[in-house]
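Exam revision sheet. Question 4 asks you to relate a sequence to its structure. Input first:
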Amino acid sequence: MRILIATDAWHPQVNGVVRTLTMLAESARKFGVEVSFLTPQSFPTVALPSYPDLRVALPRPARVAALIAEAKPDNIHIATEGPIGLLARRYCRKLGIPFTTSFHTRFPEYVSARAPIPESWVWAVLRRFHGRSGAVMAATPALAGELRGRGFRNVVLWPRGVDADLFHPQQADLGLPRPVFLSVGRVAVEKNLEAFLELDLPGTKVVVGDGPARAELEKRFPHAVFLGARQGEPLAEAYAAADVFVFPSRTDTFGLVLLEALASGVPVAAFPVSGPRDVIGTAPVGALNDDLRLACLTALDASREVCREFALKHSWEASARAFVDNVQRARAEHDAAAAVTRTSAEESSVAT
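Answer key, structure tokens:
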């Protein structure tokens, strides 16, 4: 089976969406599913306002149509609601081709944090975008429930995984006063990093990542250590060198970095909100508390071995199988409905 995924988020971007899609393709290949991508690499791009390191594709409908036809996919999945996703959706709708979608980012909260646009307006746009999807994939039961409550149809689960070979406990030392409290992710307003950097904690606060808010935060919090963006083994070493992983975001739909930290044997401290609450639940692998400082200090007592064991239950292969199952089920339901429609039309024609 060949699945084409249309996505506006792609390399060299470093984020959970890109990592999820990359690992999906690698894992699905193990059981005979070929995943290809329609990405910004095929189009001219421009820098996103306030995010100069993020570039937005400027696709043309004819080019999108040609690339999809060239790929000859058995199924089409639309991963993002950007220009590429919109034109891929338009192509499918025009030709009557079924498609699935996934919900990765809380755009209503992100947009409202930057512009005076009511969240309800953005939710309405997203509802329309996903309205014709055969399956809207959500990472957690809580997010799936929220989407259903907001009027989204055909919502299904697509759990995430972690690369436990790359992210694992190891001897690593950043050469900083301990305990080391680490946060990993884009350094941007929606990540709520101030809530972490303002805390009165012993040891050292470390931030791995880059983004538009980095320069300002470095100036405001000179005692924190900003290491910039890291990938691969350097990122794995940063995780392993930490004593607690701090996740201050209140808006992330999942937080793939949570599993990466746990696989590295590092307990998590976070607010008790959707995302960390769905990943951790009541497992003794950290602490969730509205008092983030207390959560950080409590997490120091969690067992690193238990954190690792917890993360090992989340594999990318299981995630990929869930994704493929969702795609196949949605296609089967579409084909069955189409067959009923054809039969009804034929019977009506014979009757007349």
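Marking note for examiners. The chain has a mean pLDDT of 93.
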